[in-house]
Specification:
homodimer; 256 residues; alpha/beta; Aminopeptidase; 19% helix
Chain lengths: 256, 256
C-alpha cells in the first residue's frame, strides 16, 4: 500500500470539526465548507480518510518553516520533518506539537490519517514575499519527494527530531475594564520565535513606556510571536517546551 | 495668527474628494465619510480649512518614515520634515512629493491648507510592531513640538531638503490573458525602498524562476515596494526622482 497525499491550499486555520451539527441554509460558510472538506478528504478518523493531508499557511511571525501536528509520535510526519531539515539549507525547519485530543483538533490537516500544517513566516497577510514563497515551494517539493521515495520502498534511517510541544498561550496585556490592548510585543522579543525565553526577560512594552517581563518559572520557547490573525483570538505568542524524540528507521513495508 | 493643527488617525488612503456628487441613502460609506470629513476639516481649498492636516498611515513596505505631500514648495511641510530628520536618530525620514493637481488629490491631508500623510513601515497590516509604533509616536510628537515652537515665534533656519518626486508606478507582471500575477518582487529589491534602482537591476522573480529586470533608461528610487494594499491598485512599487530643494528660513510672522 502506498501513501496517498493531498495538498490543500487553505489560508486560515478556521476549519472547525462539527460532524454532528446539521447544516442548514443559514449555517455559516465556514461550517458548511468544513463539512464539505471532511466529506471530500475524510471523514476524519475513518478508514476512508486520505493517508496524508498537508495544509499550507503563512504567518506574520518570524517562525521559519514549521510542521504543526497533533502527534509527537507520527513517524511519517517526523521523518518528513527530518528530510526537510536535512535538505533546506537557508530555512530553519521545526516540528511543533499541539498536545490536544484529535477530536478537539480544529484544523484541516487533522482530517487525514497523517497530517500537518506547513506554516511559514514572516510574511504580512495579503503580501507575497519571494523568499518565503520559494521556501514554501521547496518545502512542498521535498515533502512530495519524500513520499515518492517512501512509496518506492526507500529505507529512511531513524534518528532524533527536536519536538516543540505547545504549553500555553499568552494574551496581550489589556485594560482591566475596557479589555483594550495596552502594550505591544517588546522589541527584544519581536521576531525571536524559537529563541529561549527566560523568566525575567522582556515580553511586552506598554504604550505607557513600561516594560513587562516573562513571569513564568520555566524557560520556554516562544513562537507565533505577534501573529496578525491571533489578536482576535487573544494570543500574543505561544510558549513551547522542547525535547528530543527518537524515531525508528522506516520503510514502506514496515507500516503495512 | 498661529497654526492650527488636526491629526486624524485614518488608516487607509481611501478618501475620494467628490464634493459635487450628491450623497444619497445608497451612497457608499467611503463617499459619505469623505464628505463628512471635508465638511469637518475643510472644505478643501477654502479659507475655513484647517491650517495643517496630518494623516497617519502604515505600510508593509520598508519605507521608514515618509512625509507624503502634494507640494515640493510647502515650507511648513518641508521644515517639519527637516525637524524630524534632525531629531530622529534611528528612523530614516524622507519627503515624498506626488506631483498631481490638488483637485485630483484623493487623500485626507489634501483637505488642509497644509498637509501630509505620515507613512511608516515595514509593518504588516493588522499588527502593531513596537519599534514602528514608537517611531510614529516620536514623529507625531516632534511635529507638534515644531508647531508649538513655530507658533511661539521661533526662527527656523533654511537649508536643503531631499525631495523624492513620484515619477511612475510599476505593476506586477501578469498573464496577458488572465491578468493573474505571475511574479513576486525580486529578493534583491524587496525591502530596499529608497535605494537607487539602476537599469538592468533585478525587479521581479517569476514563479517560473525567471528574473525580470528594470528596463527604464534612468536610475530612480523605488518606494512602496510590495505594499499589501496596492495589489488591488496594480502597484508593485513606485519610482521617484530625487532632487535637493532649498528652503528659506521661516518665522511665524513671515507667513502671515
Amino acid at each position: 500500500e502506498s501513501c496517498q497525499y493531498t495538498i490543500i491550499f487553505h489560508c486560515m486555520a478556521a476549519l472547525s470539526e462539527r460532524g454532528s451539527a446539521p447544516v442548514s441554509e443559514t449555517s455559516p460558510y465556514e461550517m458548511v465548507r468544513s463539512q464539505e472538506l471532511n466529506a471530500l478528504l475524510g471523514p476524519k478518523a475513518s478508514m476512508q480518510a486520505v493517508d496524508l493531508l498537508c495544509d499550507l499557511h503563512n504567518t506574520t511571525a518570524n517562525t521559519g518553516l514549521c510542521l504543526i501536528t497533533y502527534s509527537d509520535r507520527d513517524w511519517i510526519c517526523l521523518h518528513i520533518c527530518k528530510h526537510l531539515q536535512r535538505e533546506m539549507a537557508s530555512t530553519p525547519v521545526r516540528y511543533v506539537h499541539f498536545d490536544i485530543p484529535l477530536n478537539e483538533a480544529y484544523s484541516l490537516d487533522s482530517v487525514g490519517k497523517h497530517g500537518f500544517a506547513m506554516e511559514i513566516g514572516p510574511q504580512p497577510h495579503g503580501v507575497v514575499r519571494s523568499v518565503i514563497f520559494s521556501a514554501m515551494q521547496e518545502g512542498v517539493q521535498l515533502m512530495m519527494d519524500w513520499i515518492c521515495q517512501f512509496n518506492s520502498g526507500t529505507l529512511f534511517e531513524g534518528g532524533w527530531v527536536d519536538v516543540y510541544t505547545m504549553v500555553k498561550n499568552i494574551d496581550y496585556p489589556r485594560d482591566s475594564e475596557t479589555h483594550v490592548i495596552t502594550a505591544a510585543v517588546h522589541p527584544d522579543l519581536q521576531d525571536r520565535d524559537f529563541c529561549l525565553l527566560h523568566p525575567g526577560d522582556p515580553m511586552f512594552l506598554c504604550f505607557s513606556g513600561e516594560t513587562l517581563r516573562y513571569r513564568g518559572k520555566e524557560a520556554l520557547y516562544p513562537f507565533f510571536i505577534n501573529e496578525g490573525a491571533y489578536y482576535e483570538k487573544g494570543v500574543a505568542l505561544s510558549l513551547a517546551r522542547k525535547r528530543r524524540v527518537q524515531i525508528p528507521s522506516v520503510r514502506s513495508e514496515t507500516l503495512r
